[in-house]
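Example 3.2
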Amino acid sequence: MKNIAIIGAGITGITTAYQLLERGYNVSVFDKNRYAAMETSFANGGQLSACNAEVWNSWSTIGKGIQWMLKKDAPLLFSPKMNFHKARWLISFMSNIPNHKKNTILTAKMAIESRDEFKRILNKENIKLDLEEKGILHLCDNEISLIHGRKVNKWLNEAGLSRKEVSIDEMISIEPSLNLKNFVGGFYTDSDMSGDIHKFTMLLAQACMNKGVTFYYETEVKKINHNKKQPIISFTQSDNKHKQNYDAIVICAGVNSKFLANDLGDNVNIYPVKGYSITLLLEDRDRLIMHHMSLY
């Protein structure tokens, strides 16, 4: 039976560990934090939103990025300061603009399959994570965004996602608390949902541990190299240095994946985006509504 190491105990690392475990591998997970989901997966908004599958590679994104450079309250800020890493990433980003439609459809298909797999895991492991299955509503405040939304909606429908354009009256029936004076229309995906990504990752990590996955928490991976037979992880735990051979390594370390992969000669062209996630509890007389808003 092959031994596989996973570097990173966030949502990607833990779900990867679970999938490999189901396929019969011996799995070890390394993370520098005290337990799982302590970085990007800690306070994420937790949307399971196949409706957001449109990729960013478009000329409109480039145009908005340039405009937002001059705004202090920009929803996404791209610093004009350049280095080799950023320049290389930007060239790769722009080279994929012609694939905007194709990549959006492929991403949507992957999102739909991932959402189905997620529900399977929840049922199999009996995981409860405050799941809200109320769909996701996109609002358009001008005709240009509405026209663009219709184009993207066709791509998402082509991928197999049930997403439809809704009128102002339909939007109010879906969410009566909305003030839609400044909006012209929107789109609704009833199959999308939201939940506590931190809780899910923690509970799935515990399920993995119960099934035999070995976790190395508070462990810093210093280097990965290869002895022409197997990859070797050099790591530090409790100030003690160790080395361990594995049959394969999966790197799920977020933006740090680029630097770890460099040790093996792999180019993982990742560049970080800073995000903010806000959860608001809105009380009214008859119900308690939880709204998730993620800003990137």
